[in-house]
Amino acid sequence: MVQKVLVLGSGFVAKPTVDILAARANTEVIVACRTLDKAEALAGTSSSTKAISLDVTDAAALDAAVSEVDLVISLIPYVYHATVAAAAIKHGKNVMTTSYISPAIKALEESAKKAGTIIFNEIGLDPGIDHLYAVKAIDEIHKAGGKVKSFLSYCGGLPAPENSDNPLGYKFSWSSRGVLLALRNNAKFYQDGKVVEILGKDLMKSAVPYFIYPGYSFLAYGNRDSTIYKELYKIPEAETVIRGTLRYQGFTDFTLVLVDLGLLDDTEKDFFKTPIPWKEAFAKLIGATSSSEADLLAAIDAKATFPSAEARTTIINGIKWLGFFSDTPITPKGNALDTMCATLEDLMQYGPGERDFVMLQHKFGIEWADGTTETRTSTLADYGDPKGYSSMAKLVGTPCAVAAELLLDGYFKQTGILAPYSPEICNPLREILKEKYGIFLVEKTIV
To answer: In a 10 Å sphere around its CB, with 0-12 CB exposed, 13-18 middle and 19+ buried, how is residue 425 labelled?
Structure first.
C-alpha cells in the first residue's frame, strides 16, 4: 500500500527530505507551497512526487490536503506548526517538524494522545543531531557511574572560511531578518551552579572566544533558555549547562555597532519608504548633519562604541562595503532593519562554487565515582557540496527524512508530542544517519 507524505514548505532544507522519501518504495511525496512553481521545482521530475499550491492559512484547503495523507512534514515557519498539527490531529494523522516544541504545540499533547497521533519535533540539526549525541554520551556516563558536572553545546551555520569574505564573516542561506532578530533574544543558562540571565540588548556583549580546533577562530554566545536541558537531558547534577551559537570572530563587534547606529530597529521611518541614496538615509538615521563622509564618520563616532582603534578601522570599512556611504538607492522597506536586510541579502548570498560550513560541539565535564574527572567532546565539522546539498540542508533535511521513515514504518509506539530525548528514540536515528548517510559526531576524551 502506498503511503502518502505531505511536505509543507519549499525552503532549501526541504530538498534532502523530499529526495530521500521519494526514493522510498511505495511512497508518494506531495510538495506543497503557496506558489506552485516553487513546489514544482522542489518536487523535481520523480514519478513519486507531485506539487500542489497550498496556503496553510486557508483552513479548508489545509484540512483537505492533510486528510489525504499519512504524514505531514511541516518545514514552514514555526508559527504555523500548531495550525498544521491541529488539522492533522482532527484527521488522526502524524506530523513532523524540525523546530523546537513551542507552547502552542505542547498545548496539543492531550488531543494528540486522544487521537492516537504523533507530533514529532526537533529532528533537524540544532535541534536534532545535537540531541542524538548528547543523549548518547549522557546515558553512557550515567551507566558507568559518572556525573555530568558541566555540559557545553555550541553550533554554528557559517560560510566555509575561504568564503567568509565580508564584514560579518557570514552569508545568508535563509532570512537575514531572522538571523538578525535572533541577536536580540535573551539568554539564560546555568554557570557554576547559578542561573545567569542575559538580556537581548547585552547578548552580543556577552560573546567570548571559544576554542574547538586551532584552525578556526570562533566566538560563542548563549542561545535562549538552556536551563530546561537539566531536565530534558536528565542531568540534575550539572552545575553548568550552556547551549549557544558560534560565529567567526569580528561578527559581534560589527553587529554591536549596527545596533548602536539603529540599524536593527524596526520602527517605521518615512525616509526608508522611498528609494533615496543609502548615504542620505543613513545620515538621517544616525543624525549626521549631512551625507558627506566626514559628517557620517563624526556621527558614527558619536553614537557607536569600538573595542579598539584597529577594530574601528575594520568596522568603518565594513560599513562602507555595505554601501551606506554610497549613492546606491536603498530598497525601501519602511524601517532600518528591513531596508538593511534587503541590502545584506543582495550582497551576502552564497555565490557559484561557494560552500557553507557547520560546526557543532558538545563538551562534557565528567566526575567519576572515585573523584577523578574527565572531559569528553562530540564534534561535527561539515562542509557543503557546491554541486549538491549545502551542509545545513543536508544536516536538517536528512535527519527529518530518516525520522519520517521510522515513523511511517511504525517504529515509534508512543503517541502525543515527541522529540529525541531518550535512547529509545535517539539510537536508531543516530545509527541510520551514521551508517547510511555518513552523518555523525566524532567522540573523544581530551583530558
So the answer is: buried
